[in-house]
């Protein structure tokens, strides 16, 4: 069993604490994705698992081994970075086999492992080329191949696709999903990309300022966020939030025709709340005139309308197909009651 377990893991750089007691269990064979805003500690946490950063406090286990103080080479992990860092003077095959050669493996073993990795990654036609004669996607596949030949228990990926153009990203995303299916190894993957997180992950870990906000399956986080941060972070475009007031068991939102009669435990009367609703759940009412359409965007399959509420708050509405809403028009909005999320105005925790 080669799951990864973090117990109360802390990281300080000098006086600055960047990871604040993280507890996390990643199961054997699981695809775990770290997401969170820039600077929240995703790379640091990954590098601590890899052994590239010392762990200030706490314990890291890989399988049943305590690796907290082990060298990176002893941990059974292989890391793939955003920049592929291939050796320019070596061929693809030499690049992939280099690690094994350095550790004294015989040529037959290296050839067979490189052959296996290049089959999985469809790199056979390129084995004799040098990196400069490859596309970005092919180079990144070589970097992944270099990880595969080492036969690690755990693969660590730090934004491996962020240097690729949009089309290649999609292609490589599918390749990585296939790789995980075929190899079945535990993988930890850092990304900024919503689609990568949602589609690749068995489990998403949402980080903020060095702490875990929520852990769960992609669609569970999407449907059932614990707080406003997770609600706003998972899903693209983001969930809309408007300020409201909880009075007499109902929620009033300025500019919204009806009060919201939500079956949640509302705080005391007059308490400030935030109402969250996803772009795809807002319904536009052409007969209304409370909101102004500031901008519309037609993307083909979907369109977005950017609205300004009477309070000055901004809302994004997603519509299927071509846009029906005109820039400058006035519209009303409503949302189905069962699609509305409610958050405490102060703590930002979900009210259920
Ligand atoms: N060697 C270091 N010395 C001091 N501070 C560091 C060091 N490395 C990272 N940090 C700080 O730790 C925090 C977390 O950085 P980290 O690189 O883990 O963030 P990240 O979530 O990967 O961000 P990004 O999405 O931009 O890659 C940041 O505030 C960063 O400035
Ligand atoms: Mg990073």
Automatic annotation (TrEMBL):
Name assigned to this protein: Carbohydrate ABC transporter ATP-binding protein (CUT1 family)
Listed InterPro entries: AAA+_ATPase, ABC_transporter-like_ATP-bd, ABC_transporter-like_CS, ABC_transpr_MalK-like, ABC_transpr_MalK/UgpC-like, Mo/tungstate-bd_C_term_dom, NA-bd_OB-fold, OB_MalK-like
Originating organism: Aliiruegeria haliotis
Gene3D superfamilies per record: 2.40.50.100, Nucleic acid-binding proteins, P-loop containing nucleotide triphosphate hydrolases
The ABC transporter domain, residue ranges: 4-234
Matching CDD domains: ABC_MalK_N (cd03301)
SUPFAM superfamilies referenced in this protein's UniProt entry, alphabetically: MOP-like, P-loop containing nucleoside triphosphate hydrolases
Tree of life domain: Bacteria
Keywords tagged on the record: ATP-binding, Cell inner membrane, Cell membrane, Membrane, Nucleotide-binding, Transport
Pfam families reported in the protein's UniProt record: ABC_tran (PF00005), OB_MalK (PF17912)
